Amino acid sequence: MINPDHARLKMVEEQLVPRGITDSRVLEAMRKVPRHLFLEEALADRAYDDSALPIGEKQTISQPYIVALMTQALALRETDRVLEIGTGSGYQTAILAELAERVYSIERVKSLALQARERLDRMGYRNVAIRIGDGTYGWGNAAPFDAILVAAGSPSVPPLLVEQLREGGRLVIPVGDRHVQRLQVGVKQGGQLVVSDLGDCVFVPFIGAFAWNADAC
């Protein structure tokens, strides 16, 4: 077994900093959260590789750089309330929980949601709520959110997520087809998203009423 603490620091210095991750709070969270604990033991030695990895149920844990890039784009403050779509293993959730006051996370796959809840509880994250369901509907009774992160590729931005974002809030989402997307960051201004582009990415499909149909994936 590699030394995970050493591997995690090396990941930050070799994968994140050279690629333009400059937010000191994001870098500190990436140094702190033990990514290997969010994977099956058989994959633990690969936890800090520069790649996405499988977590079961045809889902993945995102590449460390992508996690850091999306988190940095949200420009989180300690008082922010964040909606995450796609809890997955809970790793991105933990990163957000290090930086924000409260994280609301939605996962459509029950087994992944339960595993993530157990991991996050075991690690002491008390500022995270997890719901099982269709993330395209958002979490209306907890809105508005200061920031929304979507960890799945969508054909467009689901309209309810824009509605649930507060004015001036930030939303990060991969938009494209089922195989490749562009990572977009939008800022809500005058009730609309003003969008900029962060480059190519590949995510699992966003399944839901306002995204992809499960039968088509």
Please explain how this structure is put together:
The chain has 217 residues and is of the alpha/beta class. It contains 6 helices and 9 strands, in the order H-H-E-E-H-E-H-E-H-E-E-H-E-E-E. Strand 7 (165-176) and strand 8 form a beta hairpin. The model has no long low-confidence stretch (mean pLDDT 97). It has one domain: Vaccinia Virus protein VP39 (Rossmann fold, 3-Layer(aba) Sandwich), CATH 3.40.50.150. The protein has helices at 4-16, 24-32, 64-74, 91-99, 110-122, 159-163; strands spanning 53-56, 59-61, 81-85, 102-107, 128-132, 145-150, 165-176, 181-189, 192-201. The strands form 2 sheets. It has a 7-stranded mixed β-sheet with strand order 5-4-3-6-7-8-9. 28% of the residues lie in helices and 28% in strands.
Observed structural traits:
alpha/beta, Rossmann fold, two-stranded antiparallel ribbon, 28% strand, 217 residues, globular, single chain, 6 helices
Which secondary structure elements does this structure contain, and how are they paired or packed?
Elements: H1 4-16, H2 24-32, E1 53-56, E2 59-61, H3 64-74, E3 81-85, H4 91-99, E4 102-107, H5 110-122, E5 128-132, E6 145-150, H6 159-163, E7 165-176, E8 181-189, E9 192-201
